[in-house]
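Record type: ASSEMBLY
Status: queued
Input:
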Amino acid sequence: MNDDGIAQFNKVNLGSESTSSNTISEVTDKKRLNKQSQKPSNQLKNGLLGWYAICSSNNIKNERPYFFTMYNEPLVIYKDKELNLRCVKDLCPHRGASFIGGEVIDGELVCPYHGARYSSTGECTNLSRITCNHIVDDNYDNYASKIHLYQYICKEIGDYIYIYYTGKAKTNLNDFNVEDNINNRLLNNYGFDIGAYKYEEVVVDFKCDWARIIENHLDILHLFWVHGDTIPDNDVNRDVITSFNQEITREENQIESKYKYKDSSSGEFIRIKFLPPGRIVIYKGEPNEARYIQVLDHIPLSKNQARVIVRHYRKFMKNKFLTDLLLFRQLQHRVFYKVFSEDYMILRTQTYNNQMGFIEKDNVKLLGEDKMVQYYWDWFKSSETKDDPWELHPTDFNTNTVHEDISMLYPPANPKLEKDNTKSIYLNLAIRILIPIGLVLIIL
Ligand code: FES
Ligand SMILES: [Fe+2]
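Status: finished
Output:
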């Protein structure tokens, strides 16, 4: 993008809730930020605790526990005897071992340390395995009743696994007070007919502050500059940059920003919805006719570690044979891994700057086109004060890093899958070229 391009983009109209000036001077900006920080809160109902999409259904296989962390708390999901999903704290209530290295046998979670097994409701089903009759004391019944898994509510909807995360796992799921309806998470509620699309899914891990990743995904401006050469869309590159009219609305369940072409006959360029605490939906065009839609779910694994599930819904290339033949899935993965690698260094250094307090010290200036980002931070800061999720299971430099060490599975933090994907592209290309050559040689 040339300087003209940047200037043009800066001429974004701030829309219905905004001032009429094209760029905001530092003085005005400071006043506005002060004024907003004095507002009691914002209109969004959900805070940082609540429903999170954690993974895809196909991550949960029978007999295979799925391990992850939420705000530093180690958790495990598995299917019980009745094939219901269970999300339990990764802590055996006998002597506190993790279930890593354990198994799911006949729908019961089995601890690797002494073999305790746990029923669907979380009770130990083989106390005799971990007790010796001759040392059972008077208090035995009391003791046995305390051997119980700690759980969170876990649901499967539309190929996503969700948990209702409060930071306080309970022995009885009925003790949770669920304030948000899970049906709000159905993708069909977001204005598009999901049946008309096919999707590819990519999962990515970052060693950085999860809140900064959300900020990145709400930011249109960087798409042109950082990803302009990577995103295969003629509308998004460093040279083709236009200015838009931006309209932002804040409602009970979402913040939404529409970027419309100045020429009204061209319609919408992009629409972004932020659905707290962790979901973003990006539409290329208006929702009911968008050419493609991305659904991004952000998971705060631990301090400085986050996972994002990206689903890329498209109306084109729906034929399975053709997509397999053209290696569409692998090529899409390649683009996504590249896009997220491009963000990675920025996110890590931005995290550092934030942690050092540089970003808080008025060293940064949010501009008019950053209004979506500003609204997001308004929500984040008020939710952080209210819910304080990182204080529920705080860690410090003395904390053993075992869960951190095993949690980074995906690119860009762990490049293995990216390399495997590239190898698979080259291998399949070679096969596709060699087979016809071989056939011709045989015929000759
Ligand atoms: S710690 Fe799990 S069975 Fe003993
Ligand atoms: Fe990005």
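Annotation: The longest strand covers residues 292-302.
Annotation: The first helix runs from residue 3 to 10.
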